[in-house]
Amino acid sequence: MDKRTQANAPHSNMVKDPKDWTTGEEPMTGAQRSYLKTLSEEAGESMDENLTKAEASERIDALQQQTGRGEGNGSPNRH
User: Fold this and answer.
1) CA–CA gap between residue 25 and residue 68 (Å, rounded)
2) Does residue 7 lie in a domain region?
3) Is 53 within 8 Å of 21 (Cβ atoms)?
4) In terms of pLDDT, which residue wins out, 17 or 57?
5) Running DSSP on this structure, what letter comes out for residue 52?
6) Residue 34 covered by a domain
7) Are 69 and 39 in contact (CB under 8 A)?
8) Would residue 43 count as lying in a domain?
9) Helices and strands in the chain, H and E counts
C-alpha cells in the first residue's frame, strides 16, 4: 500500500482521535506539559496540571487555534 492509499484508507491509523489512543488515559508527557504551559501563558489561560495524554492533546489543539500557533500546517497534529 503506498502513502496515498494509506492516507485514504478508511481505518488508517495515521491520525487517531486521542480518545482512541491506547495510552490516552496515562498522565500527559513532559513535552506536552511544557508546550501546554507555553500555550496557556500566551493565551492567558490557566493550565490544568492533571490532564491525561488524550486531554492534553485536545487542549493543545484548542490553544494552538486560539493563539494562532496551529495555523498553516494543513493537517491535525496529535501531541
Assistant:
1) 27
2) no
3) yes
4) 57
5) B
6) yes
7) yes
8) yes
9) 3, 0
**pLDDT recorded at residue 9:** 57
- Can you give the pTM of this predicted structure? 0.66
Amino acid at 40: S
Whether 35 is in a domain gets the answer yes
**Placement of cell 478508511 in the chain:** 10
Domain that holds residue 38: 26-70
Q: What is the rounded radius of gyration, in angstroms, for the C-alpha atoms of the chain?
A: 14
Q: Of 5-19, 42-56, 64-78, where does mean pLDDT reach its minimum?
A: 5-19
HSE of 67 in the Cβ direction (CA atoms, 13 Å)?
19
- pLDDT average, residue stretch 31-46: 96
Q: Give the chain's domain count.
A: 1
